[in-house]
C-alpha cells in the first residue's frame, strides 16, 4: 500500500444513505431543462424522473426527514447552479398543513413516505378563492403537478394522522427565494418567501465510494 491509497476510501460508518440516486436525478433534470423549454415536456418527463426517484427509499439522509413540532419543514436538497430548478423534501408532522398558497413556477410533488393531501383552489368571479374539485390523497409513489398555466393555488397537508409524511418536490426556480403569496379566506394575498429549514445540503458529489 502506498501513501496515497492509505488515506483513501475507508468506509465511513457515519454515512447513512447513498445519495447517488439524487445525484442521478438532478443530473437528468438539468439535461432535461437543457433539451427543452416547453413546460408540458418538462412536466411529463420530469414526472417520470421523479417517479423513478421516489420508487426507492434508501437515498435521503435522515437529516432531511426530521419533522418539527412547530410546523412543516422544507429542506433544500439541491438547487441548480442557474436556479432553473430546485429539489426539496417536505416533512409533515401529524396534523400539519400549509396555508393556501401559490408557486409562480411549475412544480412536481412526489410522495416518498406516508401520504400528502392536496386541495386545489381557483378564483371565483368576485375575486375570492373557492375549492376546485375534491381533495386528493397522494399515497407514496404518486406524483402531482402544479403550474400557473394549469392551476397554481392549493393547500397541502399530511395525509397521515398518526405519523410523519415525507414528499419530494421539484420547482422551476429556487423555490425558497421566489416571492409568492399565501391567501386568506377572502382571497386576499399576503407576500411570502419561504426560505429553507436547513443551513447545509446533502453532499451528492462525493464519488469516492459510490
Ligand atoms: Fe405547494
Automatic annotation (TrEMBL):
**In the UniProt record, does the keyword Iron occur?**
yes
Is Metal-binding one of the keywords?
A: yes
Q: Which GO terms describe its molecular function?
A: dioxygenase activity
Q: Which Pfam families match?
A: CDO_I (PF05995)
Keywords recorded for this protein, A-Z: Dioxygenase, Iron, Metal-binding, Oxidoreductase
Identify its protein family.
Belongs to the cysteine dioxygenase family.
UniProt name for this protein: Cysteine dioxygenase
User: What taxonomic classification does the UniProt entry list for its organism?
Assistant: Bacteria, Pseudomonadati, Pseudomonadota, Alphaproteobacteria, Sphingomonadales
Amino acid at each position: 500500500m502506498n501513501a496515497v491509497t492509505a488515506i483513501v476510501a475507508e468506509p465511513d460508518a457515519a454515512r447513512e444513505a447513498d445519495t447517488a440516486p439524487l445525484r442521478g436525478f438532478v443530473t437528468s433534470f438539468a439535461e432535461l431543462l437543457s433539451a427543452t423549454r416547453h413546460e408540458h415536456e418538462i412536466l411529463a418527463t420530469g414526472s417520470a424522473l421523479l417517479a423513478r426517484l421516489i420508487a426507492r427509499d434508501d437515498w435521503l439522509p435522515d437529516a432531511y426527514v426530521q419533522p418539527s413540532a412547530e410546523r412543516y419543514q422544507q429542506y433544500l436538497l439541491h438547487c441548480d447552479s442557474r436556479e432553473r430548478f430546485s429539489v426539496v423534501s417536505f416533512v409533515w408532522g401529524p396534523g400539519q398543513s400549509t396555508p393556501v398558497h401559490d408557486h409562480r413556477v411549475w412544480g412536481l410533488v412526489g410522495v416518498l413516505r406516508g401520504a400528502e393531501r392536496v386541495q386545489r383552489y381557483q378564483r371565483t368571479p368576485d375575486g375570492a378563492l373557492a375549492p376546485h374539485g375534491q381533495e386528493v390523497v397522494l399515497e407514496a409513489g404518486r406524483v402531482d403537478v402544479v403550474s400557473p398555466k394549469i392551476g397554481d393555488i392549493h393547500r397541502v397537508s399530511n395525509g397521515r394522522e398518526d405519523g410523519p409524511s415525507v414528499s419530494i418536490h421539484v420547482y422551476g426556480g429556487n423555490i425558497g427565494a421566489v416571492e409568492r403569496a399565501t391567501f386568506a379566506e377572502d382571497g386576499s394575498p399576503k407576500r411570502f418567501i419561504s426560505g429553507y429549514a436547513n443551513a447545509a445540503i446533502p453532499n451528492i458529489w462525493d464519488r469516492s465510494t459510490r
